[in-house]
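Session log. Operator J.P. requested a structure for one protein chain; no other inputs attached. Running the standard single-chain path with C-alpha cell output.
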Amino acid sequence: QPCPASEANLSPQAMALDPAGDLFEASGNSVFEIPAGSNLIHLVYRGPGGEQSAIILGMCFTSAQTLILAGTGVVVRLDLSSGETTAVAGAAVPYAAGPALDSQIHANPLGLALDPDGDLFVNDSMWIYKIRPAGSESVIAGEAANPLPASRHGLRGIAADGAGDLYLGDSDGYVWQVNRDTGRSSVYAGNGNDPYVTPSILGGVAGITADGTGDVFTVSYAISEITPGDASVLTLANTFPTDSRCLARDAQNNFYLCGINQVERVDGKTGAMTAYAGTGVSGDSGDDGPATAAEI
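Structure written below.
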C-alpha cells in the first residue's frame, strides 16, 4: 500500500539521481526510487539472494534506464525497464588487467563514478579500477607505482569532474585529486580535521560529488563546496548532527544525504534540511507509498 517516504525506515548506503531528477537510494541489498516532485517511494530492485545477497555500497547512472551497482566484490548493471542485471566486473580470481569479468574486485566497493568518456571508476578503498565501456579493466591507482596515500585514512566515495579527473574523500578531513591519466594522487583540499586552518573540510569526508565545471562538493558536519584553481572551501549548509554517509546533488543545486535509516534533503538556496525519505527506524514496510512514511 502507498506509504509516505518520510515515514519509511531506511538505512541508505548509496544514492544517485537519474537525468529526470528521480532519486534512487540503496539500502542493504535493495534499491528504492523516489520520483522527482513525488513523496512516494517504491522498490525497484532486490538482490537475488534475498537478505543474504551483497549489500549495495555504490551506484551511478550510465543512462536514464541503466544503473550501475557495486556490492561486495562485484559490480553489476541493472536495467530499470526490465529489472534484469548483468555482471560488469568481479570474479573469484585475483586481479589482472584485462576483461573486467575475469578479475576480482579486491574489497568492498565504496563508490562509483562515470567520466565524460563513459569510463566507470570503482573505489574499493585500496585500489581505483577503470572499466572501459567495452569491458576492459585496469588499475589506475593503488599499486606500488601509484599508491593511494588516502587509503590508510579511510578512503570514501569517488567523483569525476568534467575533465575526468577523480576526487576522493577520507576520514581525516582531506580531499584527494587523482589524475586519471597518470594515477598520481595529491591533496586537493583539507587540513586534517582542524577547523581553524584554511581550507577546512570540517570533519571527515563522508560523501563527495563533483560537477562538470570542476566544483567538488563534500559532506561531513557540513556541506562544503571546493572551487577549482585555489581549492577554496565554502560552507553551504550545516548538517550536524546528521550522520551522513553519502551525497548527491541535483540540477537545481539541492543536496541529498544518506543518514541512519533516513534520507535528508538540503535546499540549495536556503540551506534548510528536511526529511525526504524514511522514518529513522529500520524496517522494510511502505513500498509504493509516501516516502516519508516508509521503512528502509
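Operator note: The radius of gyration is 18 Å.
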